[in-house]
Design a protein that fits this description.
Length: 1251
């Protein structure tokens, strides 16, 4: 380390020094002195301190004559301006006095009082520390001070203004950014601080009550600027800061100073945003996955909920770690490779692929750890002793004999086994005689010590587009925005190019692991990040799987099922919309004629469509892509490659970019010249030219892209059916449908009252939430609208299938999957019987793969993308507040700042250098040694530096005062507290104040002949009761008086009834309990089944009152009136409210006859696990007959009508209502096919067909 110049530095204490030249009172660490000496602030102060300037070398005047003339002219102008300071008065800027070029630099004079002139060693024209900028009163003041410094340098003869500078020094694009991070590339992720190191030490001091912030103001402003769903522009922030100053708040910083301060805090423990150069030539920015995972492990709200091991849960299936992929099929090397036994002081670690000795004296090799019956177990290969002909003793691995044992059976790990094998007269554990390619994992060959520092942990992640989610979190936490992490985005780079950068980081972390501090265990661990699944909509998943797309002949990314021979080989989302995700060289398909199918061909195609074909595999696809590249290395093979892609349904858009380079390299040439140009282009190709998805260890994109139910079900089949239904109806029947929708009782569905007019009039603009409502109520509103019976049957089958898919917990996975397969097959059969033209939509086939994916990954809610889709709104808000010049960088940095706030307010741990802490290490803290590369101040070479850190969280005052504000926590996205059943059963009720306190005989229950529930009637007068209006059930449903509920009595009998009274009881002298004590339910009588809905009927005319405890009320159910049986119409009237006021207009509502005749809505999504056992199983259908019936109708319609071109309209949704039995494609929302202007074109097509 260089010696300290005592003319510049004064030693303060320990390792701290003070700069005499700057004289700013700031203390600097020894190793950062050279950095300060190179700063602009120090150089300016040094230039004005004559005593520190060299005297033996006079300054050389290198100005040209033109520069001298300009300098003299500017000098005269500036001196003239200083002579009249009143002309320079600007609001908020003090006047400047100047006495000549040889005197002290510009000095500020206050408007109110005069301050003594600063010493010559202090340059007041520019803030010398971060505090001077932090406590500035106006940004204009700072800007003017910089101007005065520049003027001062010009007058003194500095020609900096005439010198050429780089563009990044003269034009900072942050000045044009509305939501900028105010730092350049070097300052954002670098460990070196653009602000002085001593300033950072003072800001990060842990003895402050608002640590790591300086005070409450900086803490709250930092939070305000980084609320995910409340993004402010820079001008709005300036207005907010002005309001604070106008109301007397002291020390309010400027926006730019605040952003520089945020950058300092971010480097302490924030997520790195790295620049990436894509292989396709695009630049984008990516938030580091390793930093994201490390922060999650250091977050106490997350790490305590992460599951590190798969679980064998028997028949129950509720979480991702219970699925077969995590439990059985994932590569063991990617899972948690160890378990720890013994005490914390004397740990004993057992690793996979290492021989261990069991308590019964046998040996085995563990290959996988898992949980069974809440106990840790392991699967192992058996080891058998063997003696070779050369009399060498060793072990044979019987990998075909696997055994599952609890870890209680483990006796000695490998290290202990090596030490004790002679004593136990056993072969050396390393002497493996027969085990192909066997080697010790995680062991150093020299000394056998584990490479893991404290232990290795592995928890899968889920990739959706380019955001990640921890798969080890429980289902109720996975669906929260708090646990979704942004990785990268770009308006230029396609998804696979960005995925290439992510895979590079994953490969690095698979090799080296991610060091992370576990907040609960208070120790450092090594994390391996395997990928469990890739989520996304169908076009994105097809592109990730290198699949041709849903418009190809082989339209399924999972299996080899084939469609029509004349299918268009063009990526499409299956809705007629070209995929936005297909990112390279995409074009719209051209219209062409499609010949009608023969009946036999159509039947065969439908049969194939309704079955799962041969499954695609990673190995076969990679082989096909390799063959495609081999063909591309030959001249004249472009057509052969195209045919091979069509034949296999494969299209790697990443590889196609490089293939196009090969094709264009010899375009227009032939023979030997073409060969030379082609080989020259091949030599320029990078090493990896195939999709980066194939480099993700343990991932098969065909198998591990699960069916996404949001886009396949709600935005798929439900959307298709609904738009087709609306297109069939006339205005009169649409009004009837609106009345039915608006009159429905939505209690138990967890939704607001239905806006029927919106669902009908705007059918082409609905969202997934709207289709979720439609799927639950459609059976009660589509009758008697003139729809064909087959159409209504298909709707009923769909509405019976949907709640099964949205079941959160599966009690018996085998029974559930069998029932789900039966429901899917019935829906497809009903659809085929209606019209098989729906099977032009590949999403109907994709449903067949759903049961298998449920067994692999858990309930469909785990791999649904609702939370990711809602997260798009946050990404859009970040994009709006950028200047669009560097959106990838700005959005990535904005999310990194959001993650920092989230981490700090969650109590997350972050590293703090030990030398920054005046008090040193606390007794309960563990210091960790870290290393980094720094630049030597003299030689300029990179040298290694070792330093120690401790992990700390934000100060207690931050965690208590800020985290106690529920509104702030909600806006930041903090997860809701997961309450236990005991906590849920307490509180959460509303008291009926009009009832007061009464004895038992005054209650409604007593009046309806319910006996006193406690002990004996003789004690009835000792109790007082009060009524409640509502309370919250254990599942989160709000149960009100008059709600219909499902209750289970002591004898396990399920009852459907109406809540009539909710009571709390207390004994005299004691307070009321904190939960409802008695719920009176009028139980309805089961009245058979309604075959019009395939749902159970209940009679509300004869009710029997019963009392239930809160634990016996399972859920709130939805009851609808049996309108078909009772011929209900829309003769009722209701007042229309406008602007929250009653108007003079009326709307039609349904008038119910016999209101006591009710139907239990088994299409209800909420609490579907309780409701589905009440479903009425419809009679089986003849599959072959249904297919033949539907195909016959389509062929007949094709023979009666002219051939029409394939529709490429984005709004294509359904079929014409001209003849319901002979469906014909139409376009909803477009009248072009029905307009008179289009008739000549139609006539031309007809004439062409006749010719």
């Amino acid at each position: 380390m260089d010696p300290v110049d005592e003319r510049v530095w004064q030693h303060v204490q320990n390792n701290l020094w003070r700069c005499i030249v700057c004289n700013d009172g700031v203390h600097h660490v020894r190793r950062h002195l050279s950095r300060h000496e190179q700063s602009i602030t120090h150089q300016n102060a040094l230039r004005h301190d004559i005593s520190h300037l060299p005297t033996n070398t006079p300054p050389q005047n290198t100005r040209s004559e033109a520069q001298t003339n300009v300098h003299q002219a500017l000098l005269t102008l500036l001196q003239g301006m200083q002579a009249e300071p009143s002309q320079l008065l600007v609001e908020g800027v003090p006047p400047v006095s100047y006495t000549g070029a040889e005197s002290t630099p510009f000095q500020f004079t206050s408007f109110e009082d005069s301050e003594p002139a600063p010493s010559p060693q202090s340059d007041m024209s520019v803030p010398t520390s971060f505090e001077n900028e932090w406590f500035g009163t106006d940004q204009d003041h700072v800007n003017m001070s910089r101007l005065y410094e520049s003027m001062d340098r010009i007058i003194e003869g500095d020609d900096f203004w005439l010198q050429d500078t780089n563009s990044h020094e003269t034009i900072d694009d942050s000045l044009y950014n509305d939501h900028d991070n105010m730092t350049d590339e070097a300052n954002w992720n670098s460990t070196s601080d653009p602000i002085t190191s001593s300033s950072e030490q003072r800001q990060m001091s842990s003895d402050q009550e608002w640590f790591p912030w300086m005070d409450k103001l900086s803490c709250t402003l930092d939070i305000l600027m980084n609320i995910p769903r409340s993004v402010f522009s820079e001008k709005q922030l300036e207005l907010i800061f002005w309001i604070l100053r106008a109301n007397g708040v002291n020390n309010v910083p400027s926006v730019s100073s605040m952003k520089r301060y945020q950058a300092t805090l971010h480097r302490a423990g924030g997520i790195e945003t790295n620049k990436c150069e894509g292989a396709l030539g695009h630049t984008y920015y990516m938030n580091d996955i390793g930093s994201i995972i490390a922060n999650e492990i250091a977050n106490p709200l997350v790490c305590e909920n992460i599951h590190w091991y798969p679980e064998d849960s028997g028949k129950v299936l509720a979480e991702a770690w219970q699925g077969s992929r995590w439990l059985y099929t994932m590569d063991p090397d990617l899972l948690t490779p160890m378990v720890r036994l013994g005490s914390k002081e004397h740990p004993r670690d057992f690793f996979i692929w290492e021989p261990v000795l069991l308590k019964d004296g046998s040996a085995c090799i563990p290959v996988r750890w898992f949980v069974r019956n809440q106990k840790m177990c392991f699967r192992a290969y058996k080891l058998v002793q063997h003696v070779t002909p050369e009399q060498k003793h060793g072990w044979i691995v019987l990998d075909h004999e696997q055994m599952d044992l609890p870890i209680d059976e483990l006796l000695l790990n490998l290290e202990e086994f090596r030490a004790a094998h002679e004593y136990r007269q056993l072969p050396f554990p390393d002497a493996i005689i027969a085990f192909p390619e066997w080697s010790f994992r995680g062991m150093d060959s020299s000394n056998g010590e584990p490479l893991a520092i404290k232990g290795k942990r592995s928890s899968g992640i889920v990739i959706h587009d380019l955001a990640v989610l921890a798969a080890g979190l429980p289902r109720n936490l996975q669906q929260q925005e708090y646990n979704v992490h942004f990785v990268c985005t770009s308006n230029l780079a396609p998804p696979l190019e960005m995925l290439d950068g992510i895979v590079d980081r994953l490969e690095f972390y698979h090799e080296n692991g991610i060091p992370a501090w576990h907040a609960a265990w208070n120790e450092e661990i090594l994390v391996i990040p395997p990928v469990l699944a890739v989520l996304g909509d169908n076009p994105m998943q097809s592109e990730m799987a290198c699949h041709m797309g849903m418009r190809g002949k082989l339209f399924c990314r999972i299996c080899m099922v084939s469609g029509r021979e004349d299918a268009e080989t063009m990526e499409n989302d299956g809705d007629g919309n070209q995929s936005d995700a297909s990112s390279i060289n995409s074009a719209r398909p051209s219209k062409r004629q499609r010949a009608g199918e023969k009946l036999s061909d159509m039947v065969d195609r439908i049969e194939r469509f309704m079955k799962i074909g041969t499954l695609r595999t990673k190995k076969e696809t990679e082989k096909t892509l390799s063959t495609i590249f081999d063909l591309a290395t030959q001249v004249g093979t472009k057509t052969a490659i195209k045919n091979l892609k069509t034949e296999q349904g494969i299209k790697d858009t990443y590889q196609d970019f490089f293939l196009d380079q090969l094709f264009s390299s010899h375009k227009g040439t032939s023979g030997q010249r073409a060969e030379q140009l082609l080989h020259s282009a091949i030599d320029k190709l990078p090493i990896n030219i195939s999709s980066p998805i194939w480099r993700i260890k343990g991932l098969d994109p065909h198998r591990d892209t699960p069916v996404e139910v949001l886009h396949v079900v709600l935005l798929g089949v439900v959307k298709y059916f609904w738009r087709d239904l609306i297109n069939r109806l006339k205005d009169e029947t649409k009004n009837l449908l609106i009345s039915r929708l608006s009159s429905l009782d939505v209690s138990g569905l967890g939704i607001s009252p239905i806006a029927g007019n919106t669902l009908v009039r705007y059918a082409g603009s609905l969202t997934g939430r709207d289709f979720r409502i439609i799927a639950q109520v459609a059976p009660f509103v589509i009758h008697d609208l003139g729809l064909p019976d087959d159409c209504v049957d298909a709707w009923r089958a769909l509405c019976a299938l949907a709640p099964m898919i949205w079941q959160p917990i599966i009690e018996d996975k085998d029974m559930y999957c069998n029932a789900l397969r039966a429901a899917i097959n019935r829906f497809l059969i009903c659809t085929a019987r209606w019209t098989p033209q729906w099977f032009n939509k590949p999403k109907f086939h994709i449903l067949l793969h759903l049961p298998d994916h449920i067994l692999q990954f858990g309930p469909p809610l785990l791999f649904a993308t609702e939370c990711f889709e809602s997260y798009n709104a946050v990404i859009r808000s970040k994009s709006v507040h950028t200047n669009r010049l560097a959106p990838s960088r700005d959005i990535g940095r904005a999310f990194a700042q959001n993650a920092r706030i989230r981490h700090l307010l969650s109590g997350g741990m972050f590293p703090v250098e030990l030398e920054w802490l005046p008090g040193g290490k606390q007794p309960n803290e563990v210091a960790i040694s870290k290393s980094r590369r720094v630049v030597d101040g003299v030689s300029g070479a990179e040298v290694g530096e070792v330093y120690q850190v401790v992990f700390r969280s934000a100060a207690n005052r931050v965690l208590t005062e800020i985290n106690c504000d529920p509104d702030i926590m909600r806006r930041i996205g903090f997860p809701k507290k997961v309450e236990s059943d005991a906590e849920l059963s307490k509180g959460h009720y509303v008291i009926n104040s009009s009832f007061g306190e009464h004895s038992w005989d005054k209650t409604l229950s007593a009046r309806n002949c319910i006996p006193f529930p406690y002990i004996s009637d003789q004690f009835a007068h000792h109790y007082h009761f009060r009524q409640l209006k509502s309370f919250e059930l254990l599942n989160g449903d709000v149960c009100k008086v008059d709600s219909w509920v499902l209750a289970r009595s002591d004898n396990r009998v399920f009852n459907i009834g109406k809540v009539t009274e909710i009571l709390q009881a207390r004994h005299p002298g004691s307070p009321f309990s904190d939960k409802p004590d008695l719920i009176a339910v009028a139980v309805a009588r089961h009245n058979g089944s309604a075959m019009s809905y395939y749902m159970p009927c209940f009679s509300a005319s004869s009710l029997v009152w019963q009392l239930f405890a809160i634990s016996e009320i399972l859920c709130v159910v939805n009851m609808q009136h049996h309108c078909i049986e009772n011929n209900c119409d829309d003769s009722g009237r209701a007042v229309i409210r406008m602007e929250r006021e009653a108007s003079s207009q009326f709307r039609r509502i349904i008038s119910h006859n016999n209101p006591g005749d009710l139907i239990l809505n088994t299409s209800q999504f909420r609490s579907s696990g309780y409701i589905l056992p009440f479903q009425v199983i419809p009679p089986p259908l003849d599959r072959t007959q249904a297919i033949l019936q539907g195909a016959t109708k389509v062929v007949a319609s094709q023979q009666n009508m002219p051939s029409t071109p394939i529709s490429t309209n984005k709004s294509f949704t359904g079929f014409s209502s001209v003849n319901p039995e002979m469906a014909q494609p139409v376009s909803l929302g477009s009248s072009r096919s029905h307009s008179h202007d289009n008739r000549p074109n139609l006539r031309k097509r007809v004439l062409k067909t006749v010719k």
